[in-house]
Structure formats: C-alpha cells, structure tokens
Amino acid sequence: MEPPDTDDRRNASPTQANQLVRHIEQLQAAVAGQQRALMRLPDEGARAAALRATGVLVRQLIDLEEAARQLELELRLQASEQDRLRALQEVGAAVNSSLDLQVVLQQVMDAIVRLTRAERAMLLLDVGGTLEVKMARNLSQETLDDAASREPQHRSPRGRNG
Is 1 helix (H, G, I), strand (E, B) or coil? Predict the structure, then answer.
C-alpha cells in the first residue's frame, strides 16, 4: 500500500481517521480469527511458524491503530484551531469593515458567542470598581436590552474592600 498523497493528508478529516481506526480493528479481528484457525493445524512446526508470523502482524496492527488514534486526535485539535482562527479572522474583518463602534462591537460579540458556544456574552467595563455593561449579545445575534439579562453577577475584584 502506498502512502497517502501529501494533498490527501492535508485534507484528511477526523471522520476519515476514525474510519481508518475501524478498518484496523476489523483487520485485527480477521487476524485473530486466522490465529484461531492456525491453532488447529496438525503440524506443530507449521503452526508455530504461522503463529509467529501472525503475531508480528498483530503487533504491527496495534502500532498502526495507536498511530491512527493519535492522528484522529490531532485532526480534531487542528479542526478546533481552524475554527478559532476563522473566528479571529472574522473579528479582524469586522474591525476593519466599519467605523461605527456599535456595529464592530456587535460583530465581535457575535464571534465570541459562536466561538465559545455561549448563550450570551457581555462586554463589561470597570468604572471605579463597578462593572458596567457596554454590550450584551445572545446566541441569536440579538442585542440584549433587558436590564436583568445584562446585569453582571459579580463585582470587579478591584472594587472590593481589602
């Protein structure tokens, strides 16, 4: 079997890596079935030689399975990093797309909500030890105007006595 083309590896997905792991597991099961069949061979020398050969194959499949699982994990991490970089790119584009601070803040807050998968996000300013809500947005990309939904739950640590 030839190694995958460089472009194929660059376009590999976590799902494809997971399919590879499943295929390796099927091969391991097939080899285990062959080992059971070899145990029934009448010739002891032939049985021992065949079992040694399949033992090497089993070890190689175990190493391959471990490498495929590591690849799957790395691909998932890369996909997550790509999502974060895409969100950062959107924030940069938002900052450069408008001179209206409210529009820019809305776009930045929407990207933050998407990136963090939060229900809502609030931009708080520390004004003399008291946090004031500058902007609040929800998952539906709506500005939150309701005072109760915008009220911060904690005071700024700098605003505490002590």
Answer: coil
Q: Please say whether the beta carbons of 128 and 159 come within 8 A.
A: yes
Is this model's pTM higher than 0.85 or not? no
DSSP states of 50-78: HHHHHHHHHHHHHHHHHHHHHHHHHHHHH
**Per-residue pLDDT tens over the stretch 32-85:** 888 888 888 888 888 888 888 888 888 888 888 888 889 889 988 998 888 888
Q: What are the residues whose beta carbons fall under 8 Å from the beta carbon of 13, sequence distance 6 or more?
A: 75, 79
Task: Give me the chain's average pLDDT, please.
Answer: 79
What amino acid occupies position 28?
Q
What pLDDT is recorded for position 61? 87
Distance set, CA 86 to CA 40, 78, 114 (Å): 58, 12, 11
The domains of the chain are located at 6-86, 98-159
Please report, for residues 84, 109, 115, 116, 138, the alpha-carbon distance to residue 106 in angstroms, rounded to integers and kept in the order given: 18, 5, 14, 15, 10
d(Cα 33, Cα 62) in Å, to the nearest integer?
16
pLDDT above 80 (res 100):
yes
Query: CA–CA separation, 128 vs 125, rounded Å?
Result: 9
